[in-house]
Design a protein that fits this description.
- The protein is mainly alpha-helical and 160 residues long.
- The chain has two domains: 79 residues; 33 residues.
- It is 74% helix and 5% strand.
- Strands 1-2 form a two-stranded antiparallel ribbon.
- The chain is extended, with a radius of gyration of 23 Å.
- It starts with a helix and ends in a 7-residue tail after the last helix.
Length: 160
């Protein structure tokens, strides 16, 4: 069996392990699980081939396995973080597949997007709140200064 086939089989084993784990546990930090469980089949295969003295082209196997893993990271991230997918699932979960435009705006913009982000910025010490005003802290100024420098360096015009 060639190294590419072994890479594909190892990746399939990784997906099976991940699917079993996510179905056994109710609340799973999916990105941490992907990262941790991606090493199990990879290292197991390398040890197996080494101790059984089989010939495995290390670079072919590693490159294909890593490529498939990175591809799966993109797919999982798109499935977990996509606002479009979330809106479609919310519409599907209603009895008549209908939500008002304002309900979606209220749910996604006010509750999810801004409130969570403001709470996170306060929690991380980037901003503080005083009598219903948001104030940029020294830590926030330092952080955003670094971001602005990076944006200018790479000619990034818009952010967020």
């Amino acid at each position: 069996m060639n190294s590419y086939s072994i890479g594909i089989i190892s990746f399939i084993l990784f997906m099976i392990i991940l699917i079993c784990y996510t179905n056994l546990k109710k609340k799973v930090p999916i990105f941490r699980a992907i990262l941790v469980f991606s090493f199990i089949p990879y290292i197991l295969t390398l040890f197996l081939y080494y101790f059984m003295s089989y010939n495995l082209s290390f670079w072919s196997y590693t490159l294909l396995y890593c490529f498939l893993n990175i591809l799966s990271y993109f797919v999982f991230y798109a499935l977990v973080k996509s606002v479009s997918v979330r809106i479609l699932i919310d519409l599907l979960s209603t009895s008549n597949f209908l939500l008002t435009y304002n309900a979606i705006l209220d749910d996604y913009i006010l509750k999810d997007s801004f409130s969570r982000r403001i709470d996170l910025l306060i929690e991380n010490g980037m901003i503080s709140m005083s009598s219903n005003n948001l104030i940029l802290t020294k830590k926030g100024k330092n952080f955003i200064f670094i971001i602005i420098v990076i944006q200018k360096l790479f000619q990034i015009k818009f952010s967020g």
